[in-house]
Amino acid sequence: MLLVGACTQPVAADDSSDGSGSGSESGEPHGAWQPVLQVDKEVGALMSVWGETPEDVYVVGGQPESGGGRVLHSVDGEWVVESLPADVSMLNWVYGVGDLVWSVGMDGAIVRREGGVWAAETSPTDRVLWGVWGASADELWAVGGDAVGDEPVLLRRDGASAAWASVELPELGVNSHGLFKVWGRAADDVWIVGDLGAALHYDGDAWTAHPDPAAVDIISVWGSDAEGVIAVGGRASGRINRVDGGSWAGETLAIPGLNGVWVDPEAGATAVGVQGTIIRISAGGYAAEAEDSGTNLVLHSVFGFAGGPRFAVGGSLLMPPPFTGVILRAD
């Protein structure tokens, strides 16, 4: 079920089942990817998914217009649309630390959820933000840039002042115009990836450039102690990268471009991309096993829980807006 605001007003449902409609729940066999929820233009495309537990999951997205931002929150299987400050545009990424959740998006939007309420934080940029991550509420990072003409954007939030500030970037080694995602294993081991193979590492003191020699767009990054750091991307063809001694090693696969990756803390990883692509990446390697998503929509993000379910989200992002969206789940 999908409800709005204070969980009292139902959203009109579309009974279509082609992956581009709205408001449906599925009862596919246990273990298969299934459309938990399909949403229409009133919600829009779904760009990112994150959760503290399988029973407490956030999905963000919307339409690329003022007031078009959306947050869906699942509590014990019931999805609700949470209220956002006025004029928040489409949100592109969500990540939480403790009881706090942050989301970033178009026009430099930054919002924080505390005590069940979303509030805007002052952003030092009006450029699009694609990713946010932090090891704790004491220090968070956000990245962005339009990948066309912008300078790449790197922001830091200081927990003591609760203020975001722009961070000067080192020489990237590539002519990058956008940074897409940020993720770390700790406050002193943080990775950023971006277009044309841009990649940065933070050791707790300074950022250094580690560009991918393949010079393809790297869209997402995640990792674990067991798997190390994995990044995925590519446009015409999907690419999987791993960090090897501070440098990137990778393979380009005969599959559509990849947009999101989540690394299982126990072993292996899941990546998603264009044309409904979902693959399982072998532990320690590059072998990719295709999984049936049941949709041709663009999948933009994937997140999961060790020993538990995985979620993938996306929408009609290759079509002109207004967008539609989908949430998939595999147990």
Describe the structure.
The strands form 7 sheets. A 6-stranded mixed β-sheet has the order 2-1-7-6-5-4, with no helix packed on it. A 4-stranded antiparallel β-sheet has the order 3-30-29-28, with no helix packed on it. The protein is mainly β and 331 residues long. The chain has one domain: Methylamine Dehydrogenase, Chain H (7 Propeller). It is built from no helices and 30 strands. A hairpin with a 5-residue loop joins strand 24 and strand 25. The radius of gyration is 18 Å and the shape is globular. The chain is 0% helix and 51% strand. This is BNR repeat domain protein.
Low-confidence stretches: 3-30
What is the beta-strand fraction? over 45%
Mean pLDDT figure: 92
Instruction: Please give the CATH architecture.
Output: 7 Propeller
The outline comes out as globular
Number of domains: 1
Helix content: under 10%
Q: Mind telling me the CATH superfamily name?
A: YVTN repeat-like/Quinoprotein amine dehydrogenase
- Helix count equals 0
Mind describing the biggest β-sheet? 6 strands, mixed
Number of E-type strands: 30
Roughly how many Å apart are the termini?
19 Å
Q: Rg to the nearest angstrom?
A: 18 Å
What's the CATH topology name? Methylamine Dehydrogenase, Chain H
Determine and state the CATH class: Mainly Beta
**Sheet with the most strands: spatial strand order:** 2-1-7-6-5-4
Along the chain, the helix and strand elements come as EEEEEEEEEEEEEEEEEEEEEEEEEEEEEE
Structural class: mainly beta
Region (Disordered): 1-32
Protein name: BNR repeat domain protein
